[in-house]
Amino acid sequence: MNEIEALLKILAQTVIDGKKDDTVKITNRLLELNYPPKQILDEGLLPGMEVVGVRFRDNIIFVPQVLISARAMKAALSIVEPLLSEAKIEGLGTIVIGTVKGDIHDIGKNIVTMMLRSSGFKVIDLGIDVSVDKFLDAINKENPVIVGMSALLTTTMVYMKIVIDKIKQNALPVKVMIGGAPISKRFADQIGADAYAKNASEAVIIARELIGINK
Amino acid sequence: MSSFIDELNKPGILLCDGAMGTELQKRGMAVGVCPEEYNITNPKFIKEIHKDYYNSGAQIVETNTFGANCLRLKFYGFENRVKEFNNAAALLAREVCPVNGFVAGSIGPLGEMIEPLGEITEQQAYDVFAEQVIALYEAGVDVLFIETMMSLDEAVIAVKAAKENSSLPVSATMTFELGKAGLRTPWGVDTKTAVEILSSLDVDIIGSNCGKGFDEMIEVIKEMKQFTNLPLLAQANAGLPEWLEGISVYNETPEIIAPKTEQLISLGIKLIGGCCGTTPAHIKKMSEIITNFNIR
Fold first, then answer.
1. Do residue A202 and residue A110 come from a single domain?
2. What DSSP element (H or E) covers B162?
3. Which of A41, B8, B24, B107 could in theory staple to B29 by disulfide, Cβ–Cβ 3.0 to 4.6 A?
4. Does A109 contact chain B (CB < 8 Å)?
């Protein structure tokens, strides 16, 4: 194994272990070695985050560990991403995402955002307490392929319907995917969402499916 | 000693109320409104819900204060009204509380993560809980219900704040989900760890609330019962919401939860009530079952 391969492997592991400082250090080292940023992402950072997603889905790790990994990933992305846009790398498209009005819970949404970014989407994160107008403005401005909505509360999840109705009223060409603890596939179908994702790694698979990429 | 503790030590099942948040919504509260502000702006509304629960047979109702801590209220710009909202909420419940009834002060999660995952320190978290505890205590609630906890660190801080700033009995309940690793909170806490740690803090009641419905709650209680002799509290959601004819509807009706309520009682719980989606009709059904059970 050459130095690059070894570094990529360690890089993935630092993401899995959530060792932010090491993730940053190795990312920088690879750049110093003139390894292309796109490949650092695809061969080091993403494989690490994928493992995190699968372990989270399978209940091997839980929210705290994912957050620590996400933090390491985020730090590395802040170095790599500007270089990617310089190199004009084509992405999978834009996703607008937010926690719906009345709801301040963003842990799940942030994890999903991180995973979607990691897999090549450009994600516009509208944050928490996002009103229907804010969603609509962002859709008009960013021209996303998908809108993602999150809610933790049983009292705020119903707001998703308001946003979906408005999107349909305006015949906006965008797919809607939703998620959150109280959400079910059935609820998603009933309010007219295009898709429901049970967890962050499923969100990536489903987002890809929604834009016509299978696997 | 408080008469609530006496009641807790008597044989028989104690009935708590059902949901506040979803009930408020069903009765017309708009999405995005601060539910705790209703204690000030719509006191009649809140009292009616409490009254409906007492009339349905609940002995204990929970104050409309789940999110009445300064971190959550800050979201609406009400961070300086913690005392006002909690005091008002406790008095509203007390006004309609029958002589043999009790008022439980509801304390939900902070809404923010504690260091190192989040920004706030343990001391800050403690102070936030303590402020709410003191406000509820001063207003004369009978017991504190710390609920919907997912992080054990946060639950521990809340219990300490409750114990150290009041002389009230304290209940601590956590929210579990069934996954590949069994029953865990989203933070990964299993039932055994939750029971062991919370018991070590001398809580008076432990248990579980919220979650995916009565079936998972039965599994939670089965596990918890193995690890403790403390009074157990179960407050399940009425399943998961669905969207039918323009409103959200919960699939576990009073009829559906009846046998599950019986099962929870036979597992040895001491207190039962409901969380999201449960209504006065659910509580009435539970009351009938408990009456039969207590006679037997």
1. yes
2. helix B152-165
3. B24
4. no
Instruction: Indicate which of A20, A154, A183, A187 best probes the interface with B, i.e. most B CBs within 10 Å of its own CB.
Output: A154
Distance from CA of B10 to the nearest CA of A (A): 35
Q: Which helix (H) or strand (E) holds A148?
A: strand A146-150
Q: Is residue A215 part of a domain?
A: no
**How far does the CA of residue A188 sit from the closest CA of chain B (Å)?**
9
pLDDT tens string, chain B, 296 residues long: the values are 458 999 999 999 999 999 999 999 889 888 888 999 999 999 999 999 999 999 999 999 999 999 999 999 999 999 999 999 999 999 999 999 999 999 999 999 999 999 988 899 999 999 999 999 999 999 999 999 999 999 999 999 999 999 999 999 999 999 999 999 999 999 999 999 999 999 999 999 999 999 999 999 999 999 999 999 999 999 999 998 888 777 778 999 999 999 999 999 999 999 999 999 999 999 999 999 999 987 76
Distance from CA of B46 to the nearest CA of A (A): 16
Closest residue in A to B26 (Cα–Cα): A155
Paired tokens of B140 = 């004369």
Q: What ipTM does the predicted assembly reach?
A: 0.88
From the CB of residue A115, how many other CB atoms can be counted at a distance below 10 Å? Answer: 28
| CB distance B112 to B75 below 8 Å | no
Q: Could you tell me which residues are beta bridge partners of residue B248?
A: B243
Q: Order of strands across the sheet with B143-149?
A: B14-15, B271-274, B232-236, B205-209, B170-174, B143-149, B102-107, B60-62
CA B125 – CA B191 distance, rounded (Å): 23
Would you call B276 an interface residue with chain A, using a CB distance cutoff of 8 Å? yes
Q: CA B83, CA A51: separation in Å to the nearest integer?
A: 46
Residues sharing a CB contact under 8 Å with residue B137, sequence separation 6 or more, in sequence order: B105, B144, B165, B166, B167, B168
pLDDT by residue (tens digit) across A133-145?
A: 999 999 999 999 9
**What is the four-CA torsion angle of A68, A72, A77, A78, rounded to 10 degrees?**
100
pTM listed for this prediction = 0.91
User: Does A12 share its domain with A53?
Assistant: yes
Per the structure, the complete domain to which residue A153 belongs is given by 94-210
A158 and B243 within 8 Å at the Cβ level: the answer is yes
The total of structural domains in chain A comes to 2
Chain B partners of A153 at a C-beta cutoff of 8 Å?
A: 21
Whether residues A112 and A145 fall in one domain:
yes
> A152 and A113 in one domain?
yes
What is the token pair recorded at A147? 């809108």
- The answer to whether B240 touches A182, Cβ cutoff 8 Å, is yes
Please check whether residues A109 and A202 belong to one and the same domain: yes
Please give the Cα distance from B163 to A96 (Å, whole number).
Answer: 44
- With contacts defined as CB-CB under 8 Å, which chain A residues touch B108? none
